[in-house]
Amino acid sequence: MLTTKRKRVPSLHGWAISVLLEEGVIRECAEHGWMKERGDPHARSRAIDLARFDPPAGYSSEQAVTELLDVLASIGDECPECPPNA
Asked: How much is the pTM?
């Protein structure tokens, strides 16, 4: 029997998280696993450019940029489980 493998297409949300991680906009808290924004404006600009000029298949540039910014807005710059810096 001949079978074919289908390529799994990530959701737009998953794609946005992947781009933000790869470009260094966000990082994972080593101790707790929460995502934290790094506050790097150059990395943020690169991620937005990537979304604008190379959106995932089946999505427009506007959809990709909007999702990227929505995901970024939902991520803080501190891990909620780490003690505050004194």
From this structure: 0.82
